[in-house]
Write a structure and sequence with these properties.
alpha/beta; seven-stranded parallel β-sheet; disordered N terminus
């Protein structure tokens, strides 16, 4: 079998062999949706978050052999390395990683930001993804290759007034391209998914509390709606499949056309 054929079928071969995909931030809305999609696609999943108990809901409908839960603070690089070592000791092959762990931020004026909170967001959103990429990326390459998907944001392309959160997503997008370039020859693809305004449980709560104006968001999207969690998860599933065997270094917006519409709206009168 040629190397080219190996690369084009590597994810299906890993899946059939029982290899796992590690998902961080799996207790969150998007992270949980990604776990459910990967399980439906036939993957074994190692779901991680700060508290293993927060992940219990993911067990519904999942086979005992298909889903494992692990407490993990991605900002603790020693803990990340320890989990990677534990999986290796238990002969759990890792074929993929989804860096979905992240802290959100409310709109705050620059001069009013709390420095400690600002640094914590960086520790989780950027340095946490970096630590996981280093630890699990090494395991993926040792196993012959696979895929990493980083969950960034439309903030990666358009600045919103989130002075800690937005820059972390820009940095994570850059890390995606840098690692894709470095790891490609080792058979490791690295891509990003950049969600737009998504109907997560937190977003629904903010809309119901009047803290988010969903009508304004809908007006600013080409499709006139917000994004559903399963739509984010579907793109992650694609990137973790052999259908994406030649896709690396990409950042794919899943935003119902929000990025495109911001420009079209400036010429709305010309559309009649």
């Amino acid at each position: 079998m040629s190397a080219r054929i190996d690369q084009r079928s590597i994810m299906s071969r890993h899946r059939e062999a029982g290899a796992a995909i590690v998902v961080t931030g799996a207790a969150g809305g998007i992270g949980g949706g990604i776990v459910e999609r990967l399980l439906a696609d036939g993957w074994r999943v190692i779901a991680t978050d700060l508290s293993a108990s927060a992940l219990e809901r993911l067990k519904d409908g999942a086979g005992d052999d298909a889903l494992s839960l692990a407490a993990l603070d991605v900002a603790d690089s020693a803990a990340v390395d320890a989990l990677a070592r534990d999986l290796k000791a238990r002969s759990v092959a890792v074929a993929g990683l989804v860096n979905a762990a992240g802290l959100l931020q409310d709109v705050t004026r620059f001069m009013a930001m709390d420095e400690a909170a600002h640094r914590r967001i960086w520790d989780v959103n950027y340095f946490g993804a970096l630590a996981c990429t280093r630890a699990f990326g090494a395991a993926i390459m040792a196993g012959g290759g696979g895929a990493i998907v980083n969950i960034t944001s439309i903030n990666e392309s358009r600045p919103l007034p989130l002075h800690a959160y937005a820059p972390t997503k820009v940095a994570l997008g850059s890390l995606t391209a840098l690692t894709a370039g470095e790891f490609g020859q080792a058979g490791l693809r690295v891509n990003a998914v950049a969600p737009g305004f998504t109907l997560t449980p937190i977003m629904r709560q903010k809309i119901e509390a009047g803290l988010r104006d969903d009508s304004a968001i809908k007006q600013a999207t080409a499709m006139g709606r917000l994004v559903e969690i399963e739509e984010i998860a579907a793109v992650v599933g694609f990137l973790m499949s052999d259908a994406a065997s030649a896709v690396s270094g990409a950042s794919i917006p899943v935003d119902a056309g929000w990025l495109a519409t911001a420009h079209w709206m400036n010429f709305g009168s010309a559309l009649g």
